[in-house]
Amino acid sequence: MRLTGDERGKEEDAFYAQVAFRTIRFDADEGFFCNGVSYKLKGVCLHEDAGCLGAAVPEEVWERRFRKLKNCGCNAIRMSHNPHAECLYSLCDRLGFFVMDELYDEWANPKNKWTRGHNVYPPSHQGITEDFWSCWQEDMRSFVFAHRNHASIILWSIGNEIDYPNDPYCSPLFKEMTGNNDADKPAAERMYNPNHPDISQLPRIAAMLSREVKKYDASRPVTMALAFPELSEGTGVYNALDVVGFNYKEALYSKNHTRHPAKSFTGSENSHSVAAWEAVKNNAFISGQFLWTGIDYLGEARGWPVHASPAGLLDMAGFEKSGYYLRKSLWSQEAFVYMESSPAGKEQWSRSWNYAAGESTLVDVRVFSTAAEVSLLLNGKPLASAKKNAEGCFLFPAIPYSEGKISAHAGAAKDELCPTKAAVAISCTLLKGRQMHQAEISIVDGDGRLVWGEQSLVTAEVRGDGALAGLENGDVADITEYASHSRHARNGRLIAYLSPTASHGTMQLLLSAEGKSGCAIDIAY
Q1: Residue 226 main-chain phi, psi, to 5 deg
Q2: Which helix (H) or strand (E) holds 209?
Q3: What are the DSSP calls for 66-126, one per residue?
Q4: Which of the 8 DSSP states describes residue 380?
Q5: Which pLDDT score, from 0 to 100, does residue 16 have?
Q6: Are 408 and 415 in contact (CB under 8 A)?
Q7: What are 260's strand-pairing partners?
Q8: What was the pLDDT predicted at 360?
Q9: Are 201 and 225 in contact (CB under 8 A)?
Q10: pLDDT at 15
Q11: H helix or E strand, kind and range, residue 417
Q12: Cα 199 vs. chain centroid, distance in angstroms?
């Protein structure tokens, strides 16, 4: 018996499992295929948190985020760098994402943990290392058994950047080894150090882990995200892998394909640059890329009060950033236009069209679109046209500002910016869920337009059968306590998470801000 609706719960979990059938194949010359159809993996890496919710993230929150990623053309997720919550895999099954599932970020020797600041020595060392040799077999068994019935999984990854240069592995073949994140590392820490473990031990461990994975699932290939393939190539690590993953090493794709014509390759971790995507698009043998990262996440910050990484397409509140629209222009087939402005030469991009009036005020405008050409109109009059530049956008520099409406057009698709008036009210859109309701909050002017840059302090009160689980604005430098019922808006927006406290009931969300008309939403569930 399959239960539906509100009856779904532990009973269904016990008796019902989702089943899907598909075939996958990685071809050394032609890339990745699913059910005989060629796909480029347009992927993002993910950590497991959601800002103010920490790592205990309900499925509805992930679904909102995943649907936004899907809307920009994303079709793949890399679970970095550990198994994630079960609901993420089920969502990927249901929404049609391909998944690289990853177990380890270190093996038998510890990697540096930057507890004092990025590349600030001495580091700390906490992780799986101290238990690796006693736990690796059970880890692998549990890892594969837990997830192997998810059709979304297409790759098992046995490790992330285990071969990171001098962290901890070294080789006398390289006097100096620099990784992709070593710009401010002391010179002495880049040099060969005979006291560090030799990288030659990695092929043996990689082969051991790969064999263990295939004891429990031989239907999917094994991969590994390599940080220093220049050296790992010669150690024999490749021999343990069905698909070789490169982190930020697009320049090596062609050379390695020539040297290893029978081996499949993918970008396992990549930057957001257009060039990094072109290296995938223009080489059939590269199956895809995984951007670091899809969503901003707690940790890996570069200095207090910043406490999170801002590397995502979405911020911690799940709102789209500028890079989201760049990615959509590269990955999506959807006709769209998205525009931003900035004081000329400042690169302070926003959705504002509020500048000081006068011909001396110059404004840069940039547009993202899937179109080949975009036209700009100012108050309905043609202003300029442009083709996409090397950075993937349409740039219109030093436009004399004029009050009114500026719009960008590409065929039937268009976008516009208008001046906004003073912020006067709170607006809210509710997304209902079973475990969590999500209220997207906006600060608007008298015409109902979002006031970009508005930072009003919003207070949330929940009455009835519910509780406030948190407020998140996506600001990586906002250190407001997550238990607080008040938080500043960021660019006029924030999100409230609401937890039901009964199986059925009603709650009311009251939102207020000084000098603004409040908002009340009644929720029945």
Answers
A1: -95, 135
A2: helix 202-216
A3: HHHHHHTT--EEEE-SS---HHHHHHHHHHT-EEEEE--S--SSPPPB-SSSTTPSSPB--
A4: T
A5: 52
A6: yes
A7: none
A8: 85
A9: no
A10: 46
A11: strand 413-417
A12: 30
SS3 for 60? helix
Neighbours of 516 (CB within 10 A): 19
Which segments in the chain show pLDDT lower than 70? 1-17
Instruction: Return the pLDDT at 120.
Output: 86
Q: Are 269 and 251 in contact (CB under 8 A)?
A: no
Length of the chain counted residue by residue: 525
pLDDT digit string, tens, across residues 394-413: 999 999 999 999 999 999 99
3-class secondary structure, 24:
strand
Do 499 and 469 form a contact (C-beta atoms < 8 A)?
yes
Q: Can you give the pTM of this predicted structure?
A: 0.94
Q: How far apart are CA 312 and CA 25, in angstroms?
A: 29
- Cβ burial 211-244 (10 Å sphere, 16+ → b, else e): ebbbeebeebbbbbbbbbbbbbbebebbebbbbb
CA distance to 9, 69, 494, 525, per residue, from 434 (Å): 11, 22, 21, 8
Residue type, 114: W
Residue 519: which residues within 8 A CB-CB, separation 6 or more? Answer: 425, 426, 427, 428, 441, 509, 510, 511
Residue in this structure with the two tokens 């009210």, named with its chain if needed: 425
Distance between CA atoms of 431 and 413, rounded to whole angstroms?
Answer: 27
Q: What is the pLDDT of residues 241-300, one digit of tens each?
A: 999 999 999 999 999 999 999 999 999 999 999 999 999 999 999 999 999 999 999 998
Displacement of CA 306 from its chain's centroid (Å):
18
Nearest alpha carbon to residue 166 among 228, 108, 223: 228
